[in-house]
What we know:
The chain has 300 residues and is an all-alpha fold.
Amino acid sequence: AGFFHLMTHAAFKACLFLGSGSVIHAMHKVYNDSEHDPQDMRNMGGLKAKMPLTFWTFLIATLALAGIPFTSGFLSKDAILAGSLAFGLFEHPRHILLPVLGFGAAGLTAFYMFRLIFMTFYGTPKDGKVVQLAHESPRTMTVPLIILAVLSLWFWFSPNPFGEGWFHQLVQKPESAAVEALAVPVEPLEVAEDAAVRAAGGAHADAAHRAHYPAMVLSIVIAVTGILLAYRRYYDRRAETIAWEADLIRRSAFLRALHNKWYFDELYEATAIRAVLAVRMALNWFDTWVIDGLVNGSAT
């Protein structure tokens, strides 16, 4: 399942990265000579009508990443979540945290990706130049997006949008590591161990079968919940909502830390960047007064 998700993930995640590049390309045209950050989603909005190819390909890839049915991401994420649910609920309940984290991550993914969709492509931008100056990217950028978006749909991997396809037939997980047939005599202990491995494999297959449909329904419900929360929160950002959020952030140190990304940018500026600049100044002084001093002194 992990190998399968690595394969499906390649197409729709590449589509999302290239789609982001398409949006950034358009925003650089808008904020060419401005103090606004062209990569800040808070400076975007309303790009759906101006960049339809980028929007639709981005939406398909987002649905695949969120694990929505009829996408390749649904097939592979469902396989992973069903396996984790079988392992952590039916086989080893002490590991119940594994499926909890898996389904929680699925909900967060749906939420933050549709936050991106709504803030970038919907709503009214705070600067009218976005709608006036933004335009669709050239074909050298949109054609790869179309190809990757089509590869993010389910039918490349399975004729059944809710079932396994050719990948699971070609790349099969072995039932056990035990040797099934040997030309040499087998000790009774080895036979017992092999039987135990086979029994464990059968129990795992039964647990995986029991978890398949509950995991499918649960993953869809969680993903749709994340999308609805993002819709409620970001689709139509009203002035009073923005003011209410700003007031909450102002009064809460914890929310301020979240809003400022745990101050990682400030920490990086105060440590790594300033350290590099300090070393640069020291090297510049050494080069100017020691190296050049020796050269100029010898010349004199």
